[in-house]
Structures are given as C-alpha cells and as structure tokens.
Amino acid sequence: MNRRSSQTLLVVREARLAWIFMGPALAVLLLIATGPLLATLWESFHDHDLRLPWLGRPFVGLTNYQEAATDPRFQEALGHTLAFTLLTVSLELTLGLALALAL
Fold it and tell me: How many angstroms separate the CA atoms of 2 and 11, rounded?
C-alpha cells in the first residue's frame, strides 16, 4: 500500500470515528428540536375547547388554519410581527456592521 492510500484510509477511519462519537448527540438534538415541533403540528389539526373538556379533541384538519387566515385579529398580529421583525433585523444589522467597522 502506498503512502497516499494509507493517508486516505486514515482520513476515512477518523471521519467514521467522528460520526460515531457525534451520532448520539446529533440524535438527541434532532429529537429535542423535532419532537415538540411535530407534537405542535399534530395538535394544530385538533379542536380544543378548554371549557368543555369532556368533548375530547376531535380531528378538524385544516379548519384551524382556515379560521386563522380569515381572522382579522390574526392578520393584524401577523402584520405587526412582520413589521417588528423587519425593523429590528435591519436595525441590528446596521448597528452590528457599524460596530464591526469601528473595531
């Protein structure tokens, strides 16, 4: 075996070992990140009435999303959120760039 192939084999072994060591941590991060997201998505397809818990939580599909899309309060809140996001991101980016240039 020549020198190049032995170096390549060493790099492959080190990469495999790195993935073996990182695997459990990445699996835990994936579960922590996607578990609540998937649970929230599942719950969004059900109807919850906290005043009448004995009715259960029937499946309603996309009805909750249709109601949110046509609700004027939701649209107003979405507009405020977008305006706040655009304002704060542009302000933080401008101030961060100014500080970076000053340094």
Answer: 15
Burial status of residue 68 (CB atoms within 10 A of its CB: 0-12, 13-18, 19 or more): middle
> Is the domain of 75 the same as that of 34?
no
To which H or E segment does residue 61 belong?
none
The CA-based angle 92-95-96, given to 5 degrees, is 80
> 38 with 3, same domain?
yes
pLDDT digit string (tens) for 20-62?
999 999 999 999 999 999 999 999 999 988 888 888 889 999 9
- Provide the whole-model pTM: 0.60
Same domain, 8 and 44: yes
The structural domain count of the chain equals: 2
Q: What is the pLDDT of residue 1?
A: 61
Residues in the chain, overall count: 103
Q: Are 64 and 45 in contact (CB under 8 A)?
A: yes
**What range does the domain containing 80 cover?**
71-103
